[in-house]
Amino acid sequence: MKRLTPTQHNLAKDGEIADVVIMPGDPKRVEYIAENFLHQAVLVNDLRMAYAYTGTYNGKKVSVMAHGMGAPSIAIYAHELFAFYGVKNIIRIGTAGALSKAMKLGSLMAASGACYNTGYASQFGLDGIFSAVASFPLLRNIVEAAGVHGIDCVSGLVLSSDIYYPYDTQKELRWAEFGVLAVEMETAALYLEAVRTGKSAAALLTVTGNLATGEYMAAERSNQVYDNMILVALETANMCV
User: Fold this and answer.
1) Interior CA angle at 238 toward 48 and 46, to 5°?
2) Backbone angles phi, psi at 110, to 5 degrees
3) C-alpha distances in angstroms, 48 versus 9, 83, 95, 163, 205?
4) Fewest Cβ atoms closer than 10 Å to its Cβ: which of 56, 199, 202, 210?
5) Which residues pair with 90 in a beta bridge?
6) Which DSSP category does 40 fall into?
7) Cα–Cα distance between 77 and 108 in angstroms, integer?
């Protein structure tokens, strides 16, 4: 695909973004990763606070960039990275609310697929419902990287919802009856953009709340468990070719 950089949403120039990008939603988490995990990280975008840094991790060039909240936001940044910057792999890292009582706070899950209620897929005019699934090699590498470091990581379905504060909270819990483990907002749009552009994507999520039990992680504790998610994502990035 033709590279059209910089874009209206990303000031990085051609060649300043690595072919594998770690994407948290929170720009402050991007800064945290750049400062604590990457070597010689350089800020390549700060437009709209969608911070992007490029550095190295164990010798491999890696970028980390914020994607914001919701399907439209991640879709804009992911599409531009895939279509215009030549990015081959995007690993979303974020938080999720568990729908199953068996999912413990602080646990990690790799999203093998994303059910969704977003209308983002309607633009493609498909005669049916598209199954938004992870790129299997990337998903496999996430699970493998977690295992190597002794970090528990389950793989399963998430619900990508456009609604953060639902009017009927019981509707989301019904998804658990069909094996959906957690709810978040962005994974389906990311997977749609990956298949649309012929690239690879996977999502690694930390459970910070449980809708089934009403438990929620305190902010100071969640900061500790994010390091496991970041480590697994970066180790997975190192496995990308």
Assistant:
1) 10
2) -100, 125
3) 7, 20, 22, 23, 24
4) 56
5) 21, 201
6) E
7) 24
Burial class (CB in 10 A: 0-12, 13-18, 19+), 92: buried
SS3 111: strand
Structure tokens at 20: 């594998």
pLDDT at 223 (0 to 100): 58
Cα-based distances in Å from 191 to 62, 158, 187: 20, 12, 6
Helix, coil or strand: residue 13:
coil
The residue among 103, 99, 68, 96 whose CA lies nearest residue 206 is 96
Q: How far apart are CA 34 and CA 47, in angstroms?
A: 17
Report, as an integer, the average pLDDT of 80-89: 97
Put simply, whether the predicted model's pTM sits higher than 0.90 gets the answer yes
